[in-house]
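Weekly structure sync - notes
Attendees: PM, LS, DV (DV joined late)
Agenda: review two folding runs queued last week.

Item 1: First target. Sequence and structure tokens pasted below for the record.
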Amino acid sequence: MADRKVIFEPEADGMASLHWLDSAEKVTARYDRLTVMGMSLQGPNKTRTLTQLRADVFEDLILDGVTAPGLGQGVRGSVHVTVPAITLLGHSEAPGHLEGYGPIDPDTAREIAARAPGFIRILTHPDMGAVLSVGRTRYKVPKELRRYLRVRDETCRWPGCRRAATQCDIDHTLDWQYDGLTEHDNLAHLCPADHALKSETRWTYTHLPDGTLKWTSPTGRTFISEPATIIRPPGKRPKPGPTPRPSSQARSRPPEADEPPPL
């Protein structure tokens, strides 16, 4: 029972699967409930198979269901879909990009953008890549910029870390107290543990033009973290360098390992 879990796996042809591992009696009881509910929707003029009905009932319960104590009331999942503007206009068959999955076919992308008010629609130009005007002059990251960064990063940007961006902090590459800007090329998602490591040790990183982060270890070795979605908004100023560190602090710190820590 300690190993119970739910796993998301991308599949081919725009599909994905959700696997639930739990005790046999729980899984059997829930599967039987799906079967009974699916059978209640069958009829002489119905074309869906029982297998399809189970899937449809499961979808409705996951999206809108509420647990016995009322947990889940009013809670809905959300996703980010990036769609080229000319795809929406029907002038291109370039695919959309579903966060956490990858490319989706243009017809599905158009349908999502047209009829799903629960989705956040972010339009990009396939050549310019312009998404948002992200220049800001305050420390707090605006909601529109947070959306941009979430689409670009999807996960923590520490090399190899796969924690979802929704569970991460947004880090100023060049710290705010050192005149760092609240802009797309000075911000990245870091999970709390890696955020602390970057802030408290001599690990640093810089932004490359396509959103790639180049990490540098305390001894000078480099590691690359590529963005989940390459978005090229118009550049406005040179990219910030590593955060300056007072020499007294640098001397007081013990030497760090030259490899990212285990996840």
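Item 2: Second target, run right after the first with the same settings.
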Amino acid sequence: MRTVGVPGPGPDAAARNAAPAGTADGLMQRLGLNFVLVSTMVLGPIPMMLPAVLAVDLIADLGITTGPFSLALTANTIVAALFAPLSGRITDSIGPKRSVVLTIGTAGVGMFGMAFATDVWVLMASAAFAGLGQGWCNPATNKLIAERVPDGRRGTITGLKQSGVMFGTFLSGFTLPTLAVWFDWRTAIGLYGVAALVAAVGIQLWLEPDAPTVEDGEAGYGALPGAVFSRAPAHRPATQLKESARVFIAKITWFSLLMGSVVGGVGRFQVLFAEESLGWTNFWAGMASALAGIIAAASRIWWARLTERRVQPASALAVQSVFTVFAMVLLLAATTVHDSLMWVMSLLAGFTMMSWNAVAMLAVITGVPVALAGRASGIVMLGFMSGLSIGGLVAGYVYEQTGSFSVIWVSFAVCAAGATVLALTMRRRPIAL
């Protein structure tokens, strides 16, 4: 089994512990590690975003309708959800460096498949294959942080890498329309595929190897000096989570399912709601949605840093979910009180509803042994990716049947309230490992 190198007994144990393999000690090493983490979180999920930005061109060129197109893209999140637990176990087995490289590589191959798609089935297969990277990116990057980043720096770097998803959303929306005008939609997506494969090769060549493996029983909850769980006894093999840690991860997974449903539904229908119910133009509706994304990119770093230094993850998650309930109330009030409440809602949503996953990922990194960080992350991502799929599909069905957004916002308020109750039952003290 893979664990991080904790030396066995001997006179030179302290010397070997002083400079473990794979640590990011120098400024350039830390900046490089930041780049690797952010790049992985940009390129892993971005295949899902590219076809959405170029939807009009793809639908026209492939001769399909909106329904099959949406179903093809849903294959990405379905595969991501199903593969996430397995990707976590693979990460724990082969190490975070190889996992990061494979994450970006599978995303690149998937984007190439989209660029050469001749019908909806090729598009669906390519999106599904890219879903492997979508489900793998968090277990791989969480494991990389757990192994290579010491206490005191994990909060900031976790928030930064979670902001990579938001940066990818901005990057695709900003560059793809221009590239499609200059060339065509196939070339635009293909260039992103090239960038992903180049990044994968570059990371493979530049990033230092993972810490050496040891046999079961030689080290258990081993960690870098000053990093997670270096205080744990070296004789205890980290083959499974303790009961308290398993319960904690299970609750975060259900929390992720509930909040992921809210994020998936609001993200898919906020713009349509602003256009149809508030009478806004597409430009202003899109600006309100973009505002939430900009706020989320910065607040993820702030929340993760705050959680590491001042508050427990459970407390932070409870605050974020309860304010998500308020955000849903603002959506309801926007149609009856004043449409300007949509801007307040976007600010609040960016700060809470779209930022909680930075706290959740940090909770996983600091709440489980290093050797099991990958599989724990995969389980949590199963909940989140399932929520994204369920929230979007259910909201679409409800709107089609009722023609009203009110039922959707009330339902999501209930989901967020349930997540709040769940967070309040989580442990407030560090888990004894």
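Discussion on item 2: Residues 318 and 420 are 5 Å apart (CA to CA).
Action: LS to circulate a short write-up before next sync.
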